[in-house]
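=== Structural record ===
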Amino acid sequence: MARMGATGRTAAEMDQRLAYVGQFTENIADNYYRVLTKYRNNDMVKIANKFYVMKGYHVQNAYNQTLATKFFSSAENIDLSQGNNAERAINDWIKSSTNNAIEYVLEDHVINSDTRLLLLSLIYFQGTWKQPFDPALTTEQKFFTDEKNSKLVSMMYRMGQVEHVWLSDLEARAIRLPYQDTDISMIIVLPNARNGLSGMLEKFKSTSMQSLAKSFKFSAENVEIYLPKFKAEFDIELKELLKKVRKERFQA
C-alpha cells in the first residue's frame, strides 16, 4: 500500500529494497490482489488493511481507488489529535476486521500530536499441522543455546516422511511442515553446527529472498524431528531502518 502511493526517488528506492525493479506498479498491486482474494474468506487466515489520515487531509481519488479495488481497503479520515480516542477507534476496527482474532495493535499513547497518517496491515494465522505431533511423545529434552549451554524444554517428536533439503551456502538444513487444508507451510532452518546460528543469520542478511527461495528444493525423506514448543514475537522500530535506505522523505 505504501508503494502504491510513492513516486519518484522514493518509489525507485522501495522497488530496489523490495525487489520490484522492472515491475509495473499495476502488476505489483495485482499480485497482492490475488493473495488477498485467495484468503479473503478463509477462517484460518485473516488479512486486513487500512489507511488512516488526519482529519482535514485529502487523499487522491486514484490512490483511494487502488486501495479499494486491489487491497480491499480505503483511506479514512480520523481526528488523530484525539489520541487515546483515536487509538480505541482504530483498535475497534482491528478487532472487527479480524473477527476478534486480533484484539488490538495500538498501545496507549502511540498516536501523538505529530501523527498525520497510519498505514495498517494485519495478518492473523492459526493452523493445524497436516501431520500432527503426538502429545504423548513430547518429553523434556536439552535445547542447546550455544556449544556448551543448554536448557530443558518440552520437545515434540515425530519420525517419518518430511520435505527436507540441505542448504550448503548457509551451512544448514531445512524442513517444510505443511498445515492442513491450505497451501501454507512452516519452513524451519537448522544450522549444521551447534554453535552455527549466528553465522547462519549473517549469511541470511547477505542472501536475497529470490536466491533463497530457489535453494529450497525440497524432497521427501525419512527424518526424525525434535521440535521445541515455542512462541515467537518481536517489535521493530522502522525509523532507523528507513534512514539507512535513504527514505527519510516519502513522496506520496
